[in-house]
């Protein structure tokens, strides 16, 4: 079973920055598409950013220009750098890995952006 462990969440003031990390277990990382999703209370889980095994990326319109997703295959880690954070970015952020028909989720890390 593949486990994904997120870290880097916390409390930050509006305009601040955070870098989230996700370190999957297992041996599929280099061939898996990785993504960051978020879910705020009462709202549907939404894609924030995704990166393919080849390094191509895509972002939600709400975070374009403020977030950067990257991966380090040597460290088996995917990152989400978030800058210019806004209160509406407050949510639980989940790491996701997709490989073939398999779909794995982390337990989530809380990001809270204060006014």
SSE topology sketch:
Elements: E1 4-7, E2 10-13, E3 18-24, E4 33-39, E5 46-51, E6 57-59, E7 67-72, E8 77-82, E9 91-99, E10 102-105, E11 109-114
Parallel strand pairs: 2-11
Antiparallel strand pairs: 1-3, 3-8, 4-5, 4-9, 5-6, 7-8, 9-10, 9-11
Report on the structure:
By secondary structure, this protein is mainly β. The chain has no helices and 11 strands. It has strands at residues 4-7, 10-13, 18-24, 33-39, 46-51, 57-59, 67-72, 77-82, 91-99, 102-105, 109-114. The strands form 2 sheets. Strands 2, 4, 5, 6, 9, 10 and 11 form a 7-stranded mixed beta sheet that branches. A 4-stranded antiparallel beta sheet has the order 1-3-8-7, with no helix packed on it. It is globular and about 40 Å long. The mean pLDDT is 95.
């Amino acid at each position: 079973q593949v486990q994904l462990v997120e870290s880097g969440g916390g409390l930050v003031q509006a305009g601040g920055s955070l870098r989230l990390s996700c370190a999957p277990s297992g041996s599929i990382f280099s061939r898996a598409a990785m993504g960051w999703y978020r879910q705020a209370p009462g709202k549907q889980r939404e894609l924030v950013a995704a990166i393919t095994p080849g390094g191509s990326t895509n972002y939600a319109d709400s975070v374009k220009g403020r977030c950067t997703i990257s991966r380090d295959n040597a460290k088996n880690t995917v990152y989400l750098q978030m800058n210019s954070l806004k209160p509406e970015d407050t949510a639980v952020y989940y790491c996701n890995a997709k490989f073939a028909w398999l779909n794995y989720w982390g337990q989530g890390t809380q990001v809270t952006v204060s006014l």
